[in-house]
Amino acid sequence: MTSRVLVAAHNHPALHPGGTEIFAHDLFRAYQRAGCEALFLGATNHIHREARPGTSFQSIGTNGDEILLWSGHFDRFFMSQVDLYGIVPDIVELLRDFRPDIVHLHHLLLLGAEFPHIVRRTLPECRIVMTLHDYYPICHHDGLMVRTTSKELCHGASPDRCHSCFKDIALDKFVLRERHLKSLLSAVDGFVAPSEFLKQRYVDWGLCERLISVIPNGQPERPVAKKPESAQRTRPVFGYFGNLNPWKGTTVLLEAAKHLISEGLDFELRVHGAAPFQSESFVADIDRLFAETSPNVQRRGAYRREDIADLIATVDCAIMPSIWWENAPLVIQEAQGQNCPVITSNIGGMAEMIESGVNGLTVPPNDPLALAAAMRRIAEDPDLRQVLSLGARHPDTIDTTAVRYLDLIETLRPLRVEAA
């Protein structure tokens, strides 16, 4: 019997190409290749689409198997729908029409923390799995688990600690937020974390450990791109791929490059990515640093996902200098799939993906001098670059990941009953 799978995410990669949206959509297509009848539901708001009178749903794509849920009234603190009377009947109608056997939820943003309960009430026998991609239910600070008063990493949430980050929000509201989210998440049959680190964060928060499985994110299968002739050079080339924002360590990377230039190191750094929705002060900071590090540092702007393999092939080493607990960055997987060494921060899921001295180098987060030292090691030692390239760990294919999810889903109900 063919399973029907509803894959739900907080946006669509055609509108917002973030890692969660990309992975959710890749997995949706992999479910179809595995023989499932799958429908993709992406929630969006006025940032990407305007409301259309008469329905909560909008079309996207050309195959009729992808739709958007317009969610313009959303409470980000409680991660809840405000317009329940407008949205819930439409979601219920969708569930009754499609009648999925499986709902695979990838986020609560815009969809709403009520989503699992709506599914459970509408389709009591439907199995619900949720992939935990970040820390939004735990942390009101955009799910970063970084203190608002500094860039200090937060090792655990509590109402008191959260209130100290948001003085204008009463402490008891954080108590209510936690209880509200845990209550609504109780409708989920099983959770998946792409890293052991993220799983432990949710266990510490209070989710049942036996309900959280670890399945690393998979990638579409791609051949290793051929390096261009220009890659046979003595001047090392580094590459950054991804959005430019404070938490991705953009300024840390540029400060490290500035330090290496002052030391006279001959290198090139190609920065691929844009800075959407960033503050004027951050944009001014990176504009200044780009100007101060030119021509060694080249600002190459946004790129298409289908071009990333060829772009990675032109660099000797990729850099992922995030200063928050990144869970499973797609960029590291893309680089490793192309046998490209990676320098990354030694925290979160990044530290699980890169073993220093084996397939890349790891450095303390938010430390430009440590990052500069690692870049120098790569730049001055071609033999090390070769060793790290040979040690690359290719990610699972997305089709393998889909099979692992489907195998897990078959076990969800018994596990949930035992845990209860």
UniProtKB/TrEMBL annotation:
Family matches, as SUPFAM superfamilies: UDP-Glycosyltransferase/glycogen phosphorylase
Keywords (A to Z) from UniProt: Transferase
Residues annotated as domain Glycosyltransferase subfamily 4-like N-terminal: 17-218
Membrane among keywords: no
Pfam families: Glyco_trans_1_4, Glyco_transf_4
GO MF entries: glycosyltransferase activity
InterPro entries: Glyco_trans_4-like_N, Glycosyltransferase_grp1
PANTHER family named among the record's database cross-references: SULFOQUINOVOSYL TRANSFERASE SQD2, TRANSFERASE
Record-given protein name: Glycosyl transferase
Phylogenetic lineage: Bacteria, Pseudomonadati, Pseudomonadota, Alphaproteobacteria, Hyphomicrobiales
